[in-house]
Amino acid sequence: MNGEGDSASVKVALLGYGTVGTEVARLLHEHAADFTARAGASIELAGVAVRRPDKHPDVPAELLTSDATALVESDVDIVVEMIGGIEPARTLLLNALRAGKSVVTANKALLAEHGAELFAAADTSGADLYFEAAVAGAIPLLRPLRESLAGDRITRVMGIVNGTTNYILSAMDSTGAGYSETLEEASRLGYAEADPTADVDGFDAASKAAILASLAFHTRVSAADVHREGISEVSSSDIAAAKALDRTVKLLAICERVNGAEGGEAVSVRVHPVMLPRRHPLSSVDGAFNAVYVEAEAAGQLMFYGQGAGGAPTASAVLGDLIAVARNRVAGGRGPRESAYAALPVRPFAETCTRYHISLDVADRAGVLSQVAAAFAAHDVSIAAVRQRGRNQDASLVVVTHAATDAALRSTVDEIAKLDAVHEVVSVMRVEGGEP
Ligand code: NDP
Ligand code: HSE
Hints:
Elements: E1 9-15, H1 19-30, H2 32-39, E2 42-49, E3 64-65, H3 68-73, E4 78-81, H4 89-98, E5 102-105, H5 108-125, E6 129-130, H6 142-148, E7 154-160, H7 163-174, H8 179-188, H9 197-200, H10 203-217, E8 227-228, H11 236-244, E9 247-259, E10 265-277, E11 289-296, E12 300-307, H12 311-331, E13 353-363, H13 368-378, E14 383-391, E15 394-401, E16 404-405, H14 406-417, E17 422-431
Parallel strand pairs: 1-2, 1-4, 2-3, 4-5, 5-6, 8-10, 10-17
Antiparallel strand pairs: 7-9, 7-11, 9-10, 11-12, 13-15, 13-16, 13-17, 14-15
The structure holds NADPH dihydro-nicotinamide-adenine-dinucleotide phosphate and L-homoserine (HSE).
């Protein structure tokens, strides 16, 4: 903190001036007077660190640097990290926190992998570590989990937390657009990560799921604890199979409080594509929008919805955090610390049961259905519903199962694929929500 009373100011180092960083700087400049009133101190941008200064002629030369380390070590109070990735962000933030500087970051990959180390550094020095923008962009979600619901027992968090994949799946569903062209558009709009495979392979959503589960269940969950499947295997056949049943395909993050070993509790955290009934509220979440359901024992069901990616929406969450940590510094206090006291074990994915939708092209003749049903029975996978539609000599057969383990389902599908009467396994996908 520099100065006293009316002249108090907090100095901010902005690391990164890309999709989000530029919007943070713009809004900080445009609303400076309001932010001063809200924080109780003027918030001064002391420097902007980038990788290639020559690419940023719009940043005043006296603020611009390629030396993020020196900027963090300078006379700043708050470090806002909008670089992304693990290094150098990790070292920069550890240095800042160890020096007692508060940190605001949107870096879910870093938090999901090195959160424990960062929280420990913040605890030791008494600095703040805020990260609302790391999950679901503009949506106020982490503060409700961290603070508003601290008096409740959360049982489940489930939602769409990656804008890029939702944008792609929505386009594939509504216009039949191809996967690559839609991904390019999501990157152009600033939704995708610097390396978009982080989005399409589910790494980004898995990092977010780890953060959500950690906050919801007061347990340290890291990215490695999350079962992860992306959307690169989702084909137009899957989308068509879903459409035929009035369903949509969405990539969901699902965090649950479940039964563990020896009567204790555990957590289950996973990210994978699912088929949802079209009337399910998450089915209508389109484009880069995110939506997250939270179920808590006393509060019941809560739903959070809004823009999950993009420069300005994400900057809104970053600036909310910036004002909060500035207020804390003005008041001489700090925000909530990490809460990991419950330390619940993470249940292996192999023990998690989900329902499945299997779409097959089969020969339309006597005995085929019983052969298929026998394969399910042989692997102890119980069938919930079967629909068959004839097409000349062939038929389209759709089977929806009761909850089964991944291993049991895979063995069943392997056996079915070998049956003479089965021409093709068109689509295999998990199912959530509603009747089969
Ligand atoms: P960008 O790739 O658009 O911007 C990254 C910025 O970091 C660039 O300005 C780059 O400099 C700078 N940078 C890279 N390496 C260094 C370095 N070694 N030293 C200093 N600066 C460096 O990223 P985004 O703005 O999209 O994302 C930033 C963070 O926000 C990430 O953690 C991301 O996951 C998160 N996030 C992003 C959202 C989005 O919609 N984009 C939404 C929510 C969170 P230069 O410009 O010179 O290359
Ligand atoms: N790449 C991320 C997404 C940015 O598409 O959701 C928001 O975290």
